[in-house]
Amino acid sequence: MTDKIKNKLIALGPDAWELKETLREGWEFYFIRHRLDQNRVVDTRTIEVVIYRALEDGKYLGSAAGEISPTASDEEIDRLLKDLTFRAGLVKNPFYTLNDKPLPPVSSDVPEPEAMAGDFLKAMTEAAETEEADINSYEIFVSRMTKKYWNSCGVETTFSWPSSMVEVVVNARKDGHEIEIYRNFESGTCDPEQLKQDVEKAMKVGRDRLAAEPMPKAEGIDVLFSGHDAKELYGYFKDRMAASFKVRKLSSWEAGQPICPGQTGDKLTLEALPSLPNSSRNMPVDEEGAAIARRFLIRDGVAENFWGGRMFSQYLGLKESSLVYNVAACGGSCSEEELRQGDYLELVEFSDFQVDPVGGDIAGEIRLGYLHKDGQVRIVTGGSVSGSMTEAMKTMRMSQEQMQVNSWLIPSATRLEGLHITGIV
């Protein structure tokens, strides 16, 4: 089918084109408690075409994308390509070019879905359950993904990677009350110990939620982030180093300049990686046919390299760039134990948590926290946390120890000052 589409694209003769085929070979399992309710094998294929048109003597470039069914007839393919060509003429972006750099051979040694599934199934039966907290249900999705890419500049590649997900619902109960906790764990292959720890932590969250008391007023206290939502703090820095943000004047950061002049806290280093152990996003080539290289986005608190797709990277004058899928953040000056000294509010669970990459606003509704004050620890719930990342980054402190959240490697504890805590009592 892709050969047929390529031949039709060549015959059609648009100014440029891309063709992408994604294959998914997967196994899925649905459990109630530990009883298998149903399972299935998945084998799907999607085909995407992008057509580009140079407009007004090459001053502008328009593009349009669409999917073609693997079972489409010749007439259906011709109709879509004609429609995309027309739609591409309605878009006017300043001219840019597609990737034309040849790609090196890519290793794609990926386990069979059957082998990956066995590891997940075994790990889920080994998580420690109690009368107070246990597993209600879970779903396991394991996949071997394969991407094939071609463009009109002669770039061509094929590569594979593992992508898995476990959805878990745990129940906790106390004194006639019961609560459900939902978790979604993404990874490449299975890390059995990590999965068991994550499920057991979810059950602990459930037990602590039932023992939590209403969040009191806690103005002026530091906030320590130690849960998976902490990755949103570091997403702020990644987004502000995006070429699209810089071109649109949404980021004032400059390459070679400190991101936070006068900073007294830890200086962040943010690194883009082509792969991260057990990430579900270990793709050596991005969606536009560019090889993903290891590069520092921020080093020791200084902006170093912007990143992005082909269009905005060219607008910014970047010679080497790509999309970013895996990120490592570090720069902590002390241990997690040292960060946990004195009074602080540790937040581990939110109903929603966001950091606005444009204005830096921090906002989260607290589901579970631990208030450490005067040598005592209180389990709390309710209320909210808010503040400004632009201000908080000046004194931000990070642990030397790290934790992985799928495609993110971040400090296991991040301590911020100056946030606003709204209590409910």
Q: How do you describe this structure in short?
A:
The protein is an alpha+beta fold.
Descriptive overview:
This protein has helices at 2-12, 74-88, 113-126, 192-211, 231-240, 243-247, 310-315, 336-339, 389-392; strands at residues 16-32, 35-55, 60-68, 93-94, 133-151, 156-174, 177-187, 213-214, 222-225, 269-273, 295-299, 302-303, 326-330, 344-355, 361-373, 376-381, 384-388, 397-398, 402-405, 408-411, 414-416, 420-422. The protein has 425 residues and is α+β, with helices and mostly antiparallel strands. It has 2 domains: 2-209, 2-Layer Sandwich (PmbA/TldD fold), CATH 3.30.2290.10; 213-425, no CATH class. The strands form 3 sheets. Strands 8, 9, 14, 15, 16, 17, 18, 21 and 22 form a 9-stranded mixed beta sheet that branches. The protein has a 7-stranded antiparallel beta sheet with strand order 4-3-2-1-5-6-7.
> In percent, how much strand structure appears in the residues?
35-45%
Low-confidence stretches: none
Termini separation (Å)?
A: 64 Å
What integer is the average pLDDT? 95
Integer count of domains: 2
Instruction: Note the overall shape.
Output: globular
Derived from helix and strand composition plus strand pairing, the structural class reads alpha+beta
Rg over CA atoms, rounded to whole Å, is 24 Å
Total number of helical segments?
9
Helix content: 10-25%
Tally of extended strands? 22
